[in-house]
Amino acid sequence: MRTVIQNGLVINSSDELHADVLIEDDKVVALAVTGSELASSWTAGADKVIDATGKYVLPGGVDAHTHMEMPFGGTVAADTFETGTRAAAWGGTTTIVDFAIQQKGSSLREGLDAWQAKAEGQCVIDYAFHMIVSDVNDQSLKEMDTLVGEGVTSFKLFMAYPGVLYSDDGQILRAMQRAGDNGGLIMMHAENGIAIDVLAAQALERGQTDPKYHGVVRRELLESEATHRAIQLARVAGSPLYIVHLSASQALAEVTTARDKGLNVFAETCPQYLYLSTEDLAKPGFEGSKYVCSTPLRPMEHQAELWKGLRTNDLSVVSTDHCPFCFNDQKVLGIGDFTKIPNGLPGVENRMDLLHQGVVDGHISRRRWVEIACATPARMFGLYGRKGVLQPGADADVVIYDPNAEQVLSAETHHMAVDYSCYEGKRITGKVETVLSRGRVLIEGEAYHGRKGDGAYVPRETCQYLT
Ligand code: URP
Ligand code: ZN
Ligand code: ZN
Ligand code: ZN
């Protein structure tokens, strides 16, 4: 099967070029300047020629932070691996890295097997796993080594959620030391959960039960304190560190300080922190629950700082932390007690578009868009070369993006299995037109040709982004 994508502007993180792309079966085999003799020679033997005139041709998006079917707060995230990866494809994402969870008292292996079983045969796009370590002990530390060897090369730890996913500083230090030795990357949920739980209980005692208090008790200081502590522990352990879902500018300042010292400290933010704020959390009639996630949304003034962090590379990746719960039957579990609202937002379908809007609005360049959404997440999590770049030898995961199309985001039209959109009514300039996953066309205009089970599990290398 030979496919040629003609006449588009190919955008990689490193450069832009008016080039045609030759795909054979599941791989990109060559790029050549549009109109050149070489490029012109490709159409004769091609099975499919796609005209991308006036369009961008990008490597497929890599969303390095999703939670399909995640059990949380007495319920389960609404997108399955099938519905969630289908929605991702509609939004121009062709690889997800989801989080397998070690249950307390169980092994990492049991957790990973359980997540592999959930995903197997269900995914529309390629997928990989990080491992959430919720029980750091001698056995799980040993298992970390084995998992790195198998392609699960990153481990999320929680400074939040005491009694559930929480690790104390000693456990964190031990896991970091292990990662320092075995090449794994520690991903940190950096919020001081012990202090947050005290403030949450005090708020409930005062009768402060509405969703907005979720944001009030999860103080910015408790994110920056935990971020600072995680960085110092990583320095002691001699391991690299990746801060997930960073939302507070004070936490970003901690990351910047560390990076200015040349440390291997990285951070991601998410579209919700770039576009939504505590004003959304304060919406009346329990609407605010739609915006409950952790770390929480922050006041509007943090957004400019986060965009700046994306420009300076103090924030290196934008992931979604896609963890959707329906308003009607899941978010409502927290009526009368904000601590019982399942934490998480839908977003896997919207990331490429919301970041393109950042290009349109002048926050980032086109190449930086591709860098934070495709190339760096691939490098950070050991997928680069195959994913995150259009070059010979890469998987033919390709997005043809119309930069001039107009669309309105809405739950009426999105493909995520959740009954609301955080961005209801938001206008976006730019839209995914065609999506290929390893050479197969999944999306073609309004047509969907994806098939569950076609997405493959991708074992990962260790981090390719260390200095
Ligand atoms: O609110 C969130 N972020 N839910 C998903 C779990 C996590 O901490 O990433
Ligand atoms: Zn988290
Ligand atoms: Zn998450
Ligand atoms: Zn539902």
TrEMBL record:
Cofactors: Zn(2+)
Entry-linked Pfam families: Amidohydro_1
Keywords, alphabetical: Hydrolase, Metal-binding
Keyword Nucleotide-binding: no
Domain of life: Bacteria
InterPro entries: Amidohydro-rel (IPR006680), Hydantoinase/dihydroPyrase (IPR011778), Metal-dep_hydrolase_composite (IPR011059), Metal_Hydrolase (IPR032466), Metallo-dep_Hydrolases_sf (IPR050378)
Protein name per UniProt: Dihydropyrimidinase
UniProt gene name: hydA
